[in-house]
């Protein structure tokens, strides 16, 4: 903290994106405060795999590795997947990816959100114990912020105030800070809910991520280390309600059928959770000395498993901008620094969100003509190697 009681950066929200931002900036030598409304997440190896898992792309893993936390994740629990298969319920044609086609061992890793948060928090706590400049305000809820030319002040629910040169809002898809700043949001309600559960399967998952597009929404089966799969089944509102209300046996029977029995029968299921699906794109990422990051700036459809990966790309970009600014003696909250982050990240995030919406609309159509084109597109993408490599590189964060 400087003589005016000011940190370099205050990060609001310690989901995976906020916690990774705080750790990345701490490692760059910034003085950081991290404020999170909820208590610290716990994770125990003895507990069942947590309901929320994400598919992490190689560039996200490289970021976490560079922060020194990836080994803790793989030592705890993570499932690498080396193949991916995508097909359509209404048309022939299938797209399959293999990590070995790009000379790699994995296309990505399936990891529990809670575990990611836990290892990032532990790294922050350990850094603090070794004397690094990190202040954790947990639980602490930011209720108001005030931006001026010199700095930004965040007021917490207990009345205390945290001051910094820059405030990073990592407060999620419904970002209260975005609302307080009056940033407009482009929204699209997909009219779908994503049903999430871990299920037992009759056949081996073969370290493969399976995705079947069907009218109403996509169905993904993601491999877990214990041989089960984590499913994300996007369904239109009424259909989601019906499927959520099914007994376990009926649910497993419908699910097996929905995946064309590619993995045989579904033998068990955990409790099902459901998430409403809505795209939210902030019209701006920067107001004064405050910027948006992660879902606060862009919440996208989970069909491509990219929401958190995009958020971690934001973190990487911001770290680079602030590192360069620091080397040149420029203030962390200077407009030119924040604008460059906004320009670079907003364009990529809008492009990604729009392409997921386009894919969702295209695969949602029951028209025979559209289905025929989809089947053709999958077959062509599968056969044209350069195109396939471009798609793989985009998903891996290498474009
Ligand atoms: C069904 C489903 C499947 C998905 N699968 C994938 C996938 O496979 N791969 C992928 O990359 N992404 C996936 N995603 C997206 C991914 O889960 C999100 O993009 C990611 O979790 C967003 O992280 P975040 O840190 O930005 O926000 P959040 O995780 O929402 O964290 C925000 C934090 O801010 C805190 N907060 C809020 N307000 C305040 C305040 N006023 N003061 C203090 N703290 C505050 C909250 O308590 C919370 O901890 C999926 C999403 C869904 C719904």
Question: What does this protein look like?
Answer:
37% of the residues lie in helices and 30% in strands. It is of the alpha+beta class and 399 residues long. The chain folds into 2 domains: 6-67 and 113-186 and 278-359, FAD/NAD(P)-binding domain (3-Layer(bba) Sandwich), CATH 3.50.50.60; 81-105 and 190-275 and 363-395, D-Amino Acid Oxidase, subunit A, domain 2 (D-Amino Acid Oxidase, Chain A, domain 2), CATH 3.30.9. A hairpin with a 2-residue loop joins β13 and β14.
| First-last Cα distance | 38 Å
Q: Helical percent range?
A: 25-40%
Structural class: alpha+beta
Q: How much strand?
A: 25-35%
Itemize the secondary structure elements and their pairings.
Blueprint: E1 6-12, H1 16-27, E2 32-35, E3 53-56, H2 58-66, H3 70-76, E4 79-81, E5 83-88, E6 94-98, E7 108-112, H4 113-129, E8 134-137, E9 142-147, E10 152-156, E11 161-169, H5 176-181, E12 185-201, E13 208-214, E14 217-223, E15 229-236, H6 237-245, H7 248-258, E16 266-269, E17 273-282, E18 286-287, E19 290-292, E20 298-299, H8 307-327, H9 335-364, H10 368-383, H11 385-395
Parallel strand pairs: 1-2, 1-11, 2-8, 5-13, 11-19
Antiparallel strand pairs: 3-7, 4-7, 5-6, 9-10, 10-11, 12-15, 12-16, 12-17, 13-14, 14-15, 17-20, 18-19
Helix pairs in contact: 1-4, 1-8, 8-9
The structure holds flavin-adenine dinucleotide.
Flavin-adenine dinucleotide (FAD) is lined by residues 12-18, 35-38, 54-55, 113, 141-142, 170-172, 176, 194, 196, 232, 275, 294-295, 302, 305-309, 311.
